[in-house]
Amino acid sequence: MSKSNNKLSIIPLGGVGEIGKNMTAYVYGNDIIVVDAGLKFPEEEMLGIDIVIPDITFLIENRTKVRGVLITHGHEDHIGGLPYFLKLLNVPVYGTRLTLGLIEGKLREHGLLDLVKLNVITNKSVIKLGEFTVSVFNNNHSIPDTVGFAIDTPEGVIVHTGDFKFDYTPVDGRPADFFKLAELGEKGVLALLSDSTNAERPGYTMSERVVGQTINDCFASAERRIIIATFASNLHRIQQIIDATEKFGKKLAVVGRSMVNNITIAHELGYIRMNPGTLIDPDEVNKLPAEQVVVLSTGSQGEPMSALTRMARATHRKVEVMPGDTVIIASSPIPGNEKFISRTIDQLFRIGADVIYQAVSGVHVSGHGSQEELKLMLNLVRPKYFIPVHGEYRMLKRHSELAVSTGVDPDNIFIVDIGDSIEFQGGKGRLGPKYTAGNVLIDGLGVGDVGNIVLRDRKLLSQDGILVVVVTLSKQDGAILSGPDIISRGFVYVRESEELLEEANKIVTQTLGKLVSENVNEWSSIKNGVRDALGRYLYEQTRRRPMILPIIMEV
Amino acid sequence: MSKSNNKLSIIPLGGVGEIGKNMTAYVYGNDIIVVDAGLKFPEEEMLGIDIVIPDITFLIENRTKVRGVLITHGHEDHIGGLPYFLKLLNVPVYGTRLTLGLIEGKLREHGLLDLVKLNVITNKSVIKLGEFTVSVFNNNHSIPDTVGFAIDTPEGVIVHTGDFKFDYTPVDGRPADFFKLAELGEKGVLALLSDSTNAERPGYTMSERVVGQTINDCFASAERRIIIATFASNLHRIQQIIDATEKFGKKLAVVGRSMVNNITIAHELGYIRMNPGTLIDPDEVNKLPAEQVVVLSTGSQGEPMSALTRMARATHRKVEVMPGDTVIIASSPIPGNEKFISRTIDQLFRIGADVIYQAVSGVHVSGHGSQEELKLMLNLVRPKYFIPVHGEYRMLKRHSELAVSTGVDPDNIFIVDIGDSIEFQGGKGRLGPKYTAGNVLIDGLGVGDVGNIVLRDRKLLSQDGILVVVVTLSKQDGAILSGPDIISRGFVYVRESEELLEEANKIVTQTLGKLVSENVNEWSSIKNGVRDALGRYLYEQTRRRPMILPIIMEV
């Protein structure tokens, strides 16, 4: 029950209506806490953009109130926006040991490591941040040390699951905190914010151990070298690969920068168990008998510059895939990557490797719970209100149907967009005002300097290229002194289209003559005249619309 | 048995190692026949390209020998290249009635209809083309009137399946010609070229009738309007939608140009059965009670300009999706389209429609046979040699494993690339020489005028845009008379980056001064100098590499 006139507001700043850049703000009176600060990979139409982070204008405007950022786990869509966030808003960060280990690497790259206060938490922690008291519960996910938060507020307890599945036989022997979740439910939970990634998927997600069994089977039957690619952050799977390597008396080489980094951090922190001597340098791969070698690699999404793709194309400095090698791609394609991965698989088959991938075997399970697990979470927590998060709209919608099926009142479910707020006062929830939220695009070192106009130009340029038309006119009578010269980039290859460009030249000359004879002397009118006449001609001839940039000089 | 010194060559000019642009040449002595002339949709990196067709240099070089083109069915990946082919090589075309009906539409658009000889075939036809005698067998596929060919040559019989599945309960009551296939097998088949699309998929592909049942269920439970999107060429499915419309006493409006075209052609030719009065004009949709309306639409791939996408965004002229409507997306995403389709589904859910799509129900089955059907074809035909076609490399590979499992000698299997030839002489097959083959890119009206350089420029332009640097130098002393002016498109938005561009200006001025003082006077050296200095500065400041186009004038 509320003891004052204050209210609790929950404001998702990222991660709803989209996959990625997860971030949720909890506001009560003069206190704000933030859960997660993720990034998103660019949509297809965001040409040239490297990553996308949440717009945190709302937090900047309330900067004195922000008490800290709580991180659920170490995946990019939960930590990738953190360096940019901390540059604008240097507040304490709370995370488990492995999560902070991965964050440290990022902060070091951004020169922030010494400036930020990192606080290690465990599932025993109770974190007091202004009016908020946050306790921590363990979850299963595709990276170790994943947690969720129970956020006690004057209005009641909010359970924020973070990403989760229920793995009854977890590789790290660290089960979910069933008792804590059930106890929260028993005492009464005001609202549940729960992971919707697999809300469309019926049944249960299988245990990560299933993949371990498949890996063992593959190792048992491989006759020559084994090359296995998976997500660099899936340390459970990496542990099972190490276990299989040791069980079959093989040696393991690791290639790919993020794979080496993650294994190094995880091993230092004790999240990876490995016998001395298991690991070899990639240089040694070619010196050992083929049947002793396992190569663990990045590139399970077929990314063009990744280690696996380079090995498949024989452009990797140290390891090359050979006929008879067994290549295991232990992942499933992230939507949008299907074509890349197919190409890599084709390339590997062409070399003569035996390729094991998801379409024909079980070398991947999801890190997110399917429908029955989502219902189990709802049954444990028994929330009064439900806010599906971490998903595109249809997933949130489906998740809300699951919530209704477990007994949540349909009027107590909020499917929201980023920037929407849900307010709780006196035990009642309602939609509140909408706050600033959105995409901040990062291109190289630029944060937010690429906007719609630049993207629109990149789109135009990518479709039909550009023609630059250069001409010098006489100041006195407007006669053409030099040019027109037409320079084409990405439109047509000049040598193949001389006739077209010659005719284009004539059109420009005629147009300029006409404009001058009509005494048009505003620069913008002359440029538009040239652009229109030339554009019309080129469209007639080619059905293309290149960008046309007239450069008219006067001397 | 070969009676002369001649040999049979089979040359896939498209459709192997790729999905799309199917085309195979059969060569014997002075005779060539071609099966199919398809198009392919552009790969991601083919920026601005509309479609891709096979390179037919080999056929042009042997133009007097080409006796005709045989078409298996009316899908774009089998007929879409035909107009371009016929412009270069006007030979008779052979196809079933529906296939030719669809081809006629294309030829009309290209102004070719009166110039080309179209020959209707049925499964009773025997086509004599030089040394080749082609007979025709019926297949099941996701478009009616699909056939395959048995090509009798002096070396033996080749069976070319075309796209197929075995549908034991076909919607049009036209089963596959099992007896013909079995009879061919019994008499002896030299080689089988068979569809590999679903070679990775275990089991059987379900009958199209299953979709009809799902459609009926959806129609029975829908309370308001039904909007259903599917492939415009899947006339079996369209027939079942018409049947359901009539069964439930509803009216059908058709939207989307290709859907209207295909239904018109198919109805005229008798491939669609419909009661008078079933069809209504889209204008009438809003005049009828919601429960009487069915709208059949294109856009099942979420294509941005399609009717469904426009209806979802309320930008369609005649029909808008309303809360409570049932939207059925009766297709599965073609690889690469997943994101488009997800966005459309999300948009429809946001409107408040009830959306039925593949992830959660059975509104689509494939038109291609799965592994057991591919093995059935192999069992019927019992070929001596096997050439898997119509698939990316891994599919061909998997299909060849299936062939081995049915008893084909592994040494008698050829997995080939486009342009490879397989030669048969005296009953023996071997790999022959490699012929010219490849991608011809079509951009607007241009056929093959966009090559690697243009595509590379488009790629560069799409990533970081372009900077045009304009400066006028004095002919006498090289002093700068005007400029440098820097024009940015797709790099940064100028108003946001004034400082950066001012500094860039200074760099250009300094560089030019230095080059002039060093008496560098070759244009290319001056331009390269400016490009390098500016590029270096911009990369340091932004980590981006825009295209830089220096335009240096001398007066």
Automatic annotation (TrEMBL), chains A, B:
Any one cellular-component term (Gene Ontology): cytoplasm
Domain Metallo-beta-lactamase, chain residue ranges per copy: 20-215
InterPro entries: Metallo-B-lactamas, RibonucZ/Hydroxyglut_hydro, RMMBL, RNase_J, RNase_J_2, RNase_J_b_CASP, RNase_J_bac, RNase_J_C
Amino-acid positions noted as binding substrate in the UniProt annotation, renumbered to this chain: A232, S233, N234, H364, V365, S366, G367, H368
Active site location: D195 (proton donor), H368 (proton acceptor)
Record localization: Cytoplasm
Superkingdom to which the source organism belongs: Bacteria
Cofactor note: Binds 1 Ca(2+) cation per subunit. Seen in 1 crystal structure, it is not clear if it is physiologically important.
The entry's keywords: Calcium, Cytoplasm, Endonuclease, Exonuclease, Hydrolase, Metal-binding, Nuclease, RNA-binding, rRNA processing, Zinc
Molecular function terms from GO: 5'-3' RNA exonuclease activity; RNA binding; RNA endonuclease activity; zinc ion binding
EC number: 3.1.-.-
Family classification: Belongs to the metallo-beta-lactamase superfamily. RNA-metabolizing metallo-beta-lactamase-like family. Bacterial RNase J subfamily.
Subunit organization: Homodimer, may be a subunit of the RNA degradosome.
Protein function: An RNase that has 5'-3' exonuclease and possibly endonuclease activity. Involved in maturation of rRNA and in some organisms also mRNA maturation and/or decay.
The name this protein goes by in its record: Ribonuclease J
Organism of derivation: Effusibacillus dendaii
